[in-house]
Design a protein that fits this description.
Blueprint lengths: L1 H18 L2 E10 L2 E10 L6 E7 L7 H12 L3 E4 L12 H12 L2 H16 L4 E11 L1 H11 L6 E5 L17 E7 L7 H14 L3 E6 L23 H18 L2
Parallel strand pairs: 3-4, 3-5, 5-6, 6-7, 7-8
Antiparallel strand pairs: 1-2, 2-4
Helix pairs in contact: 4-5
């Protein structure tokens, strides 16, 4: 009988494991009367509350790239939320369109912060998210969005920027940062060069912000994105070593702030 009971238990465990999966759902939320379309990604093996991580997109808007990163976060046990800064249906088709769309928000930091804050509120409202344990990560334009959210004084445990923009028109706002920061940067990034890095470090020092800055030698802009190609002379290229190391640094950082 014990053998039969044990076999039955194993069968039940196997069935439960078979049903566990990474779930993706679309969430429409609003900011200032504008519909925004995010995606929530989580592992449904458990219905327990867990930390949440916002994922801010690069200048082409939310793409399969951000969704892939969100799934990787879900596999680590987090609820990931792919934010939408641009607005539902606003998806640039060319670099020119992307530059114009992203430029609108870079020129209007209050609007950028408002869109980022709306995503944060949507993530915290998710039933599986522990609203007291939330972080944000971002790529390129999205790295800048995550940093602006931190500068706004948002209640975040941490922020991670991957090859993100670092500048801000209001460096004094860094005094409002509550989150710990991890900035992962391409040392040879021509789009976010030495002057921008120096200004960011001065901003953080003046505000006495706890942050870590890691620069990857030989890496340029977009070093985590295979879509960027492999020619660093173009100023944007994938770097496998920097990609792997930066993801591990983020994993360690999230584990530390959420422990």
């Amino acid at each position: 009988m014990r053998t039969l009971a044990f076999a039955a238990l194993l069968t039940m465990m196997a069935v439960g494991t078979a049903h566990a999966a990474i779930v993706t759902k679309t969430v429409v939320y609003q900011q200032g009367g504008t519909d925004l379309e995010g995606k929530v990604v989580y592992d449904n093996a458990s219905m327990a509350r867990r930390p949440g991580v916002l994922v801010f997109h690069q200048w082409m808007g939310p793409t399969d790239y951000e969704l892939r990163r969100a799934k990787m976060l879900a596999e680590l046990g987090y609820v990931a939320f792919v934010a939408d800064i641009f607005g539902k249906g606003v998806r640039p088709a060319t670099p020119k369109e992307a530059g114009e769309t992203a430029g609108k928000f870079r020129a209007d930091r209050p609007l950028l912060r408002a869109r980022a804050a709306a995503a944060l509120a949507a993530l915290k409202a998710e039933p599986l998210v522990d609203p007291k344990r939330v972080a944000a990560i971002g790529y390129c334009f999205g790295g800048g969005a995550a940093l602006e959210l931190a500068r706004s004084g948002a209640d975040l445990a941490g922020v991670v920027s991957f090859h993100g923009s670092l500048d801000t028109p209001n460096p004094a706002d860094a005094r409002s940062i509550k989150a710990r920061l991890l900035v992962l940067h391409g040392a040879d990034d021509p789009h976010v060069g030495p002057a921008a890095v120096a200004a960011f470090k001065k901003e953080m020092a003046d505000a006495k912000v706890a942050y870590e800055f890691i620069a990857y030698p030989g890496a340029v802009h977009g070093f985590t994105m295979k879509e960027a190609g492999d020619d660093p002379s173009k100023g944007m290229a994938y770097n496998a070593a920097a990609d792997a190391n930066s993801w591990q640094k983020m994993k360690d950082f999230l584990a530390e702030i959420f422990k």
